[in-house]
Design goal:
The chain is mostly helical and 115 residues long. It is 83% helix and 0% strand.
């Protein structure tokens, strides 16, 4: 197997792997919110914090950064389908990094809130 194909497959696996438990947990959060009639940012933030703590913030961040490097190197001219999935996965990886940054910022700001 060529090197670019290996990079592409590893990059795709690293990008999409964190989304599986997040989608399952997100469905569970929505189900529990509807049962408890909880609304607002507090209910959603509680669900996301549970997801990230269970899965591991640092592991997810490292995997996403590594996936960005692999997928960036696997882009080739003349491979439109592979490039489409690479670019889609790069966007999802960027979204995951933004979600982690927002989670860390919210966690830090709530922990240091004057009360």
């Amino acid at each position: 197997m060529e090197v670019n194909a290996k990079r592409f497959l590893w990059g795709i696996a690293l990008v999409w792997a964190p989304w599986i438990p997040i989608l399952i947990a997100f469905g569970d959060v929505l189900y529990q919110m509807s049962r408890a009639k909880a609304t607002g940012l507090g209910a959603v933030a509680g669900g996301f914090s549970e997801i990230f703590v269970m899965y591991g913030v640092v592991g997810t961040l490292v995997a996403q950064l590594f996936a960005i490097v692999l997928l960036s190197k696997s882009l080739l001219p003349g491979r439109p389908v592979r490039n489409f999935f690479s670019i889609l996965s790069l966007c999802l990886s960027g979204l995951m990094i933004v979600m982690i940054a927002v989670f860390l910022w919210l966690s830090w700001s709530w922990a240091h809130r004057a009360g």
